[in-house]
Amino acid sequence: MVVIQNRQWAVAPAAPPEFVASLPEVHPIVAQVLYNRGFGSAAAARAFLASSGAALHDPRSLYGMDRAIDRLRRALRDGEIIAVHGDFDVDGVTAAAILYEGLRAAGGRVLPPHIPQRTTTGYGVHASAIEKLAADGARVMVTGDTGTRALEAVERANQLGVDVVITDHHLPGEALPAACAVINPQQSVCPYPFKQLSGAGVAWKLVQALALEGLFDLARAEDLIDLVALGTIVDVSPLLGENRTLVQWGLDRLLQAPRPGIRALMNRSSATQRRPALDERTVAFIIGPRLNAAGRMDDATLALELLLTEDERRAAELVLTLEQKNLERQQLTERVLVAARAQAERVADQPVLVLRGEDWPSGVIGLVAARLAEEFGRPAVLVEVRPDACRGSGRGAQGFDLVGLLTSCADLLIEFGGHAQAAGFAVHPDRLDALVDRLVAGAAKQGAGEAAPLTADCALSALDVEWPLHQALRPLRPFGAGNPQPSFMTAGVPVMGARAVGTGAKHLQLRLRFGRQVLHAFGPELGPRAATLARAGRVDAIYSLDVSTWNGRESLELRLHDVRPASTT
Question: Cα–Cα 20 to 30 A to 347, which of 180, 215, 353, 426?
Answer without folding.
Answer: 426
